[in-house]
Write a structure and sequence with these properties.
Distance between the termini of chain B: 53 Å
Shape of chain A: globular
Radius of gyration of chain A: 16 Å
Strand content of chain A: 35-45%
Shape of chain B: elongated
Largest sheet of chain B: none
Structural class of chain B: mainly alpha
Structural class of chain A: alpha+beta
Number of strands of chain B: 0
Order of helices and strands of chain A: EHHEEEEHE
Number of helices of chain B: 18
Helix content of chain A: 25-40%
Number of strands of chain A: 6
Strand content of chain B: under 5%
Oligomer: heterodimer
Number of helices of chain A: 3
Helix content of chain B: 55-70%
Largest sheet of chain A: 4 strands, antiparallel
Chain lengths: 113, 412
């Protein structure tokens, strides 16, 4: 089964992660291990929502907005796309995700293809 | 479950079917989910099998092994329906498949435990489901209560309960919650989740037995039945035995908890002759069997405390206080500390108890001021006791408890 991990956090979590010297190396180790296990398909960290562009098409017109589609305290800081046997494996993999100690990770199963 | 259904000569076929329903429903649903992976189909086919039993048993007689008959009937029905669905799918241009479901060879669970009911219990009680959903699913799929019955038991609209069940089953399917006994590294934690659901069910029924709707009383019976099943399929898990013993100890005192006027009677004042002796004996044996495995846990300790409460001629308070100290290692809560303080007050006097009680912080919990009041009364400080009773009366959650506290205050 495929799951999308939506890696979320507020500004406090973001600052705490940046202050932790071990944070980035731990992220790399997690990614390397999950790739080797054939679990991690893709993903990465994201620039802040300030840099987002929001797009809609209405009546054939492309409408752009500078910024995220919703202002929230919790922001999506990154994502991972994983392939697991079942939710239990996804839980095990996500519990070891370095951001889980600071922010929140939403595990979303994909629709069947 | 034991296929030998008790059949007395004068038992009606309806009663035989009802008994078989209690004994076999969970097993049949669990087997069919294992076979088809489809929770709704499993429930519907189990339902059909019992409906068919009501039709054919009066005519053909009750089969020698009703459980096997029902399982076979439900399984045949599922195979029929899957075949029909496959034929329908084939007509739409998809490859025709053999009617034998592909998931018959579902992978064995890691523990090698074959019982489908255990897989069903762990799946219903998966921590990715909301607690209330776990409780509802367990009652529906394992105990066979109808949605309407579960809704009544939890005082919510049937429609609300129906949506809760639909949503939980959809999540199990869509989120990939596995239908299995969890592997070793998850087993202890997940077993705890199952025990927690069963204990909540028991307490919902037990707390309500003081004058509330009798349907909630049935929750205690269902919880005991499920705990027996759990112990049957996990005989090596001492906490399952501990939980069953704990339930049996408490349930054995149910008739003595209320007097003839329907008023609450505290344990010390209960008429011991109204306790269910054989059930207490069964509880003691279940507890001893669990303790012999030498892997203590919170349910075994609570059962041991319950055993000390009913020991003759009076409760063994020093032992109860010691057991609460042990329990704190697993459940470090203020409520446990309060119970320990009560035991200490009985073992070593009210002053020792009061010293412990005064250190506790349990805002809004009526038993804290109620306990203080009792201790102050025993210490001969009636004015302070009356003030504490007044506090407790204000916080008491049920009328029966309020009346009980008012009576205690009057006795000052």
């Amino acid at each position: 089964m495929r799951y999308l991990l939506l890696v979320c956090g507020d500004d406090d979590a973001y600052q705490a992660m940046l202050a932790d010297e071990e944070f980035l190396p731990t992220c790399h180790r997690w990614s390397a291990e999950m790739e080797e296990r054939g679990i991690l398909i893709g993903g990465g960290g994201l620039q802040p929502p300030d840099d987002a562009t929001t797009l809609r098409v209405r009546d054939g017109q492309v409408l752009l907005t500078d910024g995220p589609f919703a202002e929230t305290k919790e922001i999506i800081a990154g994502f991972s796309l994983i392939e697991c046997a079942d939710l239990d494996e996804a839980l095990e993999v996500t519990a070891r995700h370095p951001v889980a100690r600071y922010g929140t990770i939403e595990i979303r199963p994909f629709l069947p293809t | 479950m034991n296929p030998a259904t008790p059949r007395e000569p004068r038992m009606s076929v309806e009663a035989v079917v009802a008994t078989a329903f209690r004994a076999e429903w969970g097993q049949i649903v669990a087997t069919l989910i294992g076979m088809t992976g489809d929770w709704d189909l499993a429930e519907e086919c189990a339902q059909d099998a019992f409906a068919q039993a009501l039709q054919s048993w009066p005519r053909d007689g009750v089969p020698r092994r009703p459980g096997a008959w029902l399982t076979t009937t439900a399984r045949n029905r599922a195979v029929d329906r899957l075949r029909r669905d496959r034929v329908g799918a084939a007509k739409q241009g998809e490859a025709a498949l053999s009617f034998v479901p592909a998931f018959v060879d579902a992978p064995q669970d890691d523990s090698g435990v074959p019982d489908d009911r255990l897989r069903l219990m762990f799946t219903c009680c998966h921590p990715a489901l909301a607690f209330e959903s776990r409780v509802a699913l367990t009652l529906r799929t394992l105990a066979g209560l109808t949605t309407a019955e579960i809704a009544r038991a939890f005082l919510v609209a049937e429609d609300t309960m129906s949506k809760r069940l639909v949503r939980a089953k959809r999540k199990i399917r869509n989120a990939g919650i596995p239908y299995r006994v969890p592997p070793g590294h998850l087993l202890a934690e997940r077993t705890g989740a199952v025990l927690g659901v069963l204990y909540l069910l028991f307490n919902e029924g037990y707390a309500a037995s003081a004058g509330a709707a009798p349907v909630r009383r049935n929750l205690s019976d269902e919880a005991i039945r499920l705990a027996r099943t759990l112990l049957e399929v996990m005989p090596g898990e001492p906490e399952a035995g501990g939980l069953l013993a704990l339930m049996l100890f408490n349930d054995a005192r149910r008739d003595a908890r209320l007097d003839d006027a329907g008023e609450l009677v505290v344990l010390a004042d209960q008429d011991r002759s109204r306790w269910d002796g054989p059930q207490l004996e069964e509880a003691r044996q279940a507890l001893e069997a669990a303790l012999r495995r030498r892997r203590p846990g919170p349910y075994q300790i609570q059962a041991a405390i319950a055993a000390c409460h009913v020991s003759a001629p009076e409760p063994d308070w020093p032992q109860i206080a010691a057991l609460y100290t042990q329990l704190l290692r697993w459940v470090p809560s203020e409520v446990v500390r309060l119970n320990r303080a009560v035991a200490v007050s009985m073992a070593r006097g009210p002053a020792a108890g009061l010293a412990l009680v005064d250190r506790l912080d349990l805002p809004g919990y009526h038993l804290l001021p109620a306990t203080r009041a009792d201790l102050l009364r025993r210490l001969g400080r009636p004015a302070e006791a009356a003030a504490a009773y007044a506090q407790a009366i204000e916080l008491a959650p049920t009328d029966a408890e309020r009346r009980h506290l008012v009576r205690r205050r009057k006795d000052l």
